[in-house]
C-alpha cells in the first residue's frame, strides 16, 4: 500500500499532483529545491498539525530529557568512514555539510546533517519511496539528534519514485540509491555493511524520534556490556502507547506490551527490563555483535520476524535484550507495509511465524508461556527468574533515611542475583526517587497502577515466588491480603525491633505514653514473627531476642548494609570539624543532635576551642535548626555529592545515640569513608569487631574526651581510619551482603 493511500483525501490529491509534476522535472538544483518546497508543504498540512499536540505533550515529558552532552560534537569534513566500498549497482550520495545543525531547528529550516570521520552511531533507515514520510522522519532526527557523533544513512530500495532525488540532495545525509530491489531485510543488511558507526540504530522511515531517543539507547548499550540489543518505547501518532517491549508466546505469536494504553506515565511502561523482543521500528545493537550474527537472517526476507529472530540469536550468543523506556519514538504503524496480512509484503508475516516456530521450537517450549498467560513474568522474559514483591511504606529515599539505604541494598542484591523485583509502596505515591528505582530495573506499583492491592494479587499472585514485607505497621495492613492472595513464600524484614527502640526512648525521656505505645508495638511484633517463613534482622542480638521472646520464630540475621570495598589509606584530615549525619524525622537523631550540641560540645571546646560542628541530614526539627550558630552548621537535606564532601573534609564523626535499635548505617558509613568515629554503646550495637575501629563512650565526659583525642592525635587518627576501612571491606561488601540475604531467603 502506498503512503498516499493512507492520507486524508485532500492531501492525497495534492501528493498525486506533486508526483505528476515531479515526472516533468529535471534534476537541476533549482528543480530539486522546488520539489522540496512542495514536499515540505505536506509537513505543514492538517494531518501534520493534528498530530502536533500528542507529539509535543510527550516531548515535554521529563523522562525524555537528560541525556544530552554525554559525547562531544566535533564535526569534520572528511568522508564518512565505511567498512566496505559500495557495489557498482548502487549510487552513494553524501552531500557536503560543514556545520552541526541547531537542535532547536524549526520545521521551516532546510534539512542537513553533520559529517564525522568516525561516527559513534549509524542511524540506518531503509526506504522504498514514500519520500514525504521519510522527510518527516529525517526532520525529527535533525531536531532531536544524538549527542554523540553520528551519521544518517537512507537506503532507497529502487522504488523508481523520482521524488527520491530530494533525499539525495540533503547535505550530510548518506544516501544509498539502488538499481535493483533487495527487499526490506536485505536492504537493511546491505546498508549496515556500508555504515561506519560503533553502534547501529535501525529506524523505520515511518517514525519520528523524540528528544533523547538515540542517547538513551547508546547509554544503555555502553553502560552494561551484558546487553546486546535494546530498543525504544513506541507511540501511535495520537499519543497512545503502541509498544513497551514485546512478548513472544510459545507458539511464536507476539504481543506488544501495553498496546493502546493512553496513560503514558503508567509505571508499568517506564522501567527498563529484559524482554523477548523489541519491534525493529527502533532498535540499537553494537556493530561488532550485529556483524558476528551476520545481520538479519535472510531466511525471513523480504520482511517480518527478522527483528524477533535477531533478539533470540542475541540471547543465544549470551547477551540480554532490554527495553529502554527513556527512548521514545512515534511509529506511524502500517504506512510502510500496510495492515492487510493477505497482501504484499505483509503476507510474509504468517509464513515467517512458521519459520520462527520451527527454528526456535525448543526454546519457545522451554522459556516461553502459552498465549495470554503469566503476563507478569512474560513481559520481562521471566519464566525462570525468581519473582519477589517487596512492600514498604514508601519508595526508598536514600538521601533521607538509613532504612531506605538498607532497602536499596536488598533490591540491588536481588537484581544482581537475577530476581524479578516488584515494589509496592504503601502510600502509592510517585516521588522524585521513583525514577531512580525504576532505572535499576524495578517495576513500582504506585498510584499509576489502576488495580487495588487485592486485585493486583488476584491477577499476579500465582506468578510470585516470594513476598517480602518491611516494618510492622506495613505488615499489619498487608499480611492478611498476602495470605489470601498468594501461596508465595513470605518473609518479614523488620529493619530494627521497633518496640525495643521505643522502650529505650521512653526510658531516656521518661515519656509514659510512649512506654505504653512500645508495649503495644511489642505485642504486634511478637505476633508478626509467627506469621512468616523467614524473619530478618540485621544483627545477631536482635535475632536472639526474637527467638527468646517467640522460640518458634524463624529469625535470621543478614549483613545489614553494603559498601564498595576501599582499602586505600585516607590522608589525615586536618582541622577540628566534627560531623554528625542523620535524618531528623527519626527521634533518636534529634535527641542525639541536642545532646551533642548542648552537652558534649561545650566540653570539647573547653580543650579544643577551634572545634566546629556540622549537623547534616534532612528534615531538621525546629529544635535542631535552633542549634545553628557561629560554630555549628545545620545543613538540612543534602545531595550525595555534598555528603561525600562533608565526610572527606571532617576530622571526626560523632554518633551520640542514647536510644535506638538495630545496626546504624551512619556508623558503618563513617568507617567506610575512613573517618574516625566516636559513638555510644547504642550506636555500636550489632557491629561485630567495631571496638578497634572507633571510640565507644556512654557519658558526655567520656564522649568529649574521645573526640578531643582524635582531634589532637594524628597517629591514633591514622590507626582508626585504616581499621575502619578494613572492617567495612571485609564484613560489609556487596558480595557478603548478597550471600547472606540469598541464604536466608532460600533456606
Automatic annotation (TrEMBL):
Protein name as it appears in the record: Glycosyltransferase
Pfam families to which the protein is assigned, alphabetical: Glyco_trans_1_4, Glycos_transf_2
Highest taxon in the source lineage: Bacteria
InterPro entries: Glyco_trans_2-like, Nucleotide-diphossugar_trans
PANTHER family tied to this protein: RHAMNOSYLTRANSFERASE WBBL
Record domain Glycosyltransferase 2-like: where: 122-234
Amino acid at each position: 500500500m502506498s503512503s498516499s493511500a493512507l492520507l486524508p483525501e485532500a492531501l492525497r490529491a495534492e501528493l498525486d499532483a506533486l508526483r505528476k509534476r515531479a515526472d516533468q522535472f529535471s534534476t537541476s538544483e533549482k528543480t530539486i529545491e522546488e520539489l522540496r518546497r512542495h514536499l515540505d508543504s505536506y509537513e505543514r498540512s492538517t494531518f501534520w498539525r493534528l498530530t502536533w499536540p500528542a507529539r509535543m505533550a510527550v516531548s515535554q515529558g521529563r523522562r525524555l530529557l537528560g541525556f544530552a552532552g554525554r559525547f562531544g560534537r566535533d564535526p569534520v569534513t572528511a568522508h564518512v568512514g565505511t567498512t566496505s566500498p559500495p557495489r557498482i549497482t548502487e549510487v552513494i550520495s553524501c552531500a557536503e555539510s560543514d556545520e552541526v545543525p541547531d537542535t532547536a531547528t524549526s520545521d521551516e529550516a532546510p534539512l542537513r546533517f553533520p559529517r564525522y570521520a568516525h561516527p559513534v552511531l549509524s542511524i540506518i533507515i531503509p526506504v522504498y519511496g514514500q519520500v514525504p514520510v521519510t522527510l518527516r522522519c529525517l526532520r525529527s532526527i535533525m531536531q532531536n539528534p544524538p549527542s554523540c557523533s553520528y551519521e544518517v544513512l537512507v537506503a532507497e530500495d529502487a522504488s523508481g519514485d523520482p521524488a527520491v532525488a530530494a533525499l539525495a540532495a540533503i547535505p550530510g545525509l548518506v544516501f544509498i540509491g539502488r538499481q535493483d530491489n533487495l527487499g526490506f531485510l536485505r536492504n537493511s543488511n546491505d546498508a549496515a555493511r556500508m555504515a561506519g558507526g560503533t553502534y547501529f540504530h535501525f529506524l523505520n522511515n515511518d517514525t519520528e524520534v523524540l528528544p533523547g531517543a538515540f542517547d538513551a539507547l547508546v547509554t544503555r548499550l555502553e553502560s552494561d556490556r551484558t546487553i546486546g540489543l535494546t530498543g525504544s518505547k513506541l507511540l501511535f501518532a495520537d499519543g497512545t502507547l503502541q509498544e513497551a517491549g514485546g512478548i513472544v508466546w510459545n507458539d511464536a505469536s507476539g504481543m506488544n506490551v501495553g498496546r493502546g494504553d493512553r496513560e503514558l506515565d503508567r509505571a508499568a511502561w517506564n522501567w527498563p527490563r529484559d524482554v523477548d523482543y523489541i519491534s525493529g521500528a527502533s532498535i540499537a545493537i553494537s556493530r561488532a555483535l550485529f556483524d558476528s550474527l551476520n545481520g538479519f537472517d535472510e531466511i525471513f526476507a523480504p520482511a517480518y520476524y527478522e527483528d524477533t529472530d535477531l533478539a533470540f540469536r542475541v540471547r543465544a550468543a549470551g547477551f540480554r535484550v532490554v527495553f529502554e523506556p527513556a527512548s521514545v519514538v512515534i511509529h506511524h504503524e502500517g504506512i510502510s507495509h500496510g495492515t492487510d496480512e493477505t497482501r504484499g509484503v505483509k503476507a510474509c508475516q504468517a509464513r515467517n511465524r512458521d519459520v520462527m516456530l520451527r527454528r526456535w521450537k525448543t526454546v519457545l517450549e522451554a522459556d516461553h508461556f502459552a498465549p495470554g498467560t503469566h503476563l507478569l513474568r512474560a513481559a520481562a522474559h521471566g519464566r525462570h527468574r525468581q519473582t519477589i514483591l517487596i512492600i514498604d511504606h514508601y519508595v526508598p529515599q536514600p538521601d533521607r533515611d538509613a532504612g531506605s539505604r538498607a532497602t536499596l541494598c536488598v533490591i540491588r542484591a536481588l537484581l544482581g542475583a537475577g530476581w524479578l523485583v516488584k515494589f509496592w509502596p504503601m502510600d502509592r505515591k510517585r516521588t522524585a526517587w521513583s525514577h531512580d528505582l525504576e532505572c535499576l530495573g524495578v517495576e513500582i506499583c504506585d498510584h499509576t497502577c489502576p488495580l487495588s492491592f487485592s486485585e493486583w494479587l488476584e491477577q499476579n499472585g500465582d506468578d510470585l515466588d516470594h513476598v517480602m514485607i518491611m516494618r510492622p505497621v506495613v505488615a499489619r495492613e498487608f499480611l492478611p491480603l498476602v495470605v489470601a492472595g498468594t501461596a508465595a513464600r513470605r518473609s518479614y524484614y523488620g529493619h530494627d525491633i521497633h518496640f525495643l527502640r521505643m522502650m529505650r526512648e521512653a526510658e531516656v525521656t521518661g515519656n509514659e505514653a510512649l512506654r505504653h505505645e512500645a508495649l503495644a508495638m511489642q505485642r504486634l511484633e511478637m505476633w508478626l514473627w509467627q506469621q512468616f517463613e523467614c524473619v530478618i534482622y540485621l544483627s545477631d542480638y536482635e535475632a536472639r531476642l526474637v527467638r527468646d521472646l517467640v522460640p518458634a520464630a524463624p529469625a535470621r540475621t543478614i549483613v545489614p548494609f553494603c559498601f564498595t570495598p576501599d582499602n586505600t589509606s585516607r590522608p589525615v584530615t586536618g582541622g577540628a570539624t566534627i560531623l554528625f549525619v542523620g535524618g531528623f524525622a527519626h527521634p533518636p537523631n534529634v535527641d542525639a543532635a541536642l545532646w551533642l550540641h548542648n552537652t558534649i560540645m561545650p566540653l570539647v571546646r573547653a580543650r579544643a576551642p577551634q572545634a566546629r560542628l556540622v549537623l547534616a541530614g534532612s528534615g531538621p526539627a525546629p529544635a535542631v535548626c535552633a542549634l545553628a550558630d557561629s560554630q555549628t552548621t545545620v545543613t538540612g537535606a543534602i545531595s550525595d555529592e555534598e555528603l561525600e564532601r562533608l565526610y572527606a573534609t571532617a576530622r571526626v564523626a560523632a554518633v551520640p545515640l542514647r536510644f535506638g535499635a538495630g545496626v546504624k548505617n551512619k556508623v558503618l558509613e563513617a568507617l567506610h569513608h575512613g573517618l574516625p568515629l566516636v559513638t555510644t554503646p547504642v550506636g555500636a550495637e550489632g557491629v561485630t569487631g567495631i571496638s578497634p575501629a572507633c571510640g565507644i563512650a556512654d557519658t558526655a565526659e567520656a564522649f568529649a574526651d574521645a573526640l578531643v583525642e582524635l582531634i589532637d592525635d594524628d597517629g591514633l587518627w591514622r590507626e582508626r581510619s585504616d581499621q575502619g576501612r578494613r572492617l567495612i571491606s571485609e564484613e560489609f561488601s556487596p558480595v557478603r551482603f548478597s550471600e547472606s540475604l540469598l541464604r536466608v531467603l532460600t533456606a
